[in-house]
Specification:
It is built from 5 helices and 6 strands; from the N terminus they run βααβααββββα. By secondary structure, the chain is mainly alpha-helical.
């Protein structure tokens, strides 16, 4: 990939020797410090998995509004579900978008401390008859992304000279 945006290739992490992994850690540290973002390649999530996820999301937004309203975000203490076009404001301006907020499926946490753990919990899912396979496709994608994000956190920890799990322990 030829881009002015730095590229981080995880193939080195998965298949490289110790020196190559150390070099990747240093590269990631440098890129995060100097640029702040990067393209991630060879991360292990197949394009077909990403494409299936995007197809599922497009199918959700194509549903009639009554199916989407059934999972309105206001029904979820974890703020998961659908949000209607124009229902959010940014800088006191209407956001002209609708959205669906989904995360890795989890049980709600009783008495969450710290408070942000209250966002962990179950998703709301559209009617399976109206959208066959949606839940499975989206859940699979989020599980894969969660595993990948935790891997990146371990690499970032190592790049800072910390134990691999140091940064990961503060994420829900």
């Amino acid at each position: 990939m030829n881009s002015p945006i730095p590229v981080i290739d995880l193939q080195t992490w998965y298949h490289g020797d110790t020196a190559a992994r150390d070099a990747l850690c240093e590269r990631l540290r440098q890129v995060c410090h100097e640029v702040g973002f990067f393209y991630l390649v060879n991360h292990g999530i197949a394009e077909s998995v990403s494409a299936a996820y995007l197809d599922a999301i497009r199918a959700f937004f194509a549903l009639p509004i009554e199916y989407k309203r059934a999972i309105d975000k206001r029904h979820s203490p974890q703020f998961r579900g659908w949000e209607q076009l124009g229902s959010e404001l940014t800088n006191n301006q209407i956001d002209y978008r609708e959205q669906i907020d989904i995360g890795v499926e989890a049980l709600a946490i009783d008495d969450p401390d710290p408070w942000y753990l209250a966002l962990i919990g179950p998703n709301q899912w559209p009617d399976a008859a109206a959208l066959p396979g949606f839940r499975e496709t989206v859940s699979d994608y989020f599980v894969r992304l969660s595993a990948l994000s935790r891997q990146i956190l371990r690499i970032m920890s190592r790049s800072l000279g910390l134990d691999d799990g140091h940064i990961e322990q503060v994420f829900g």
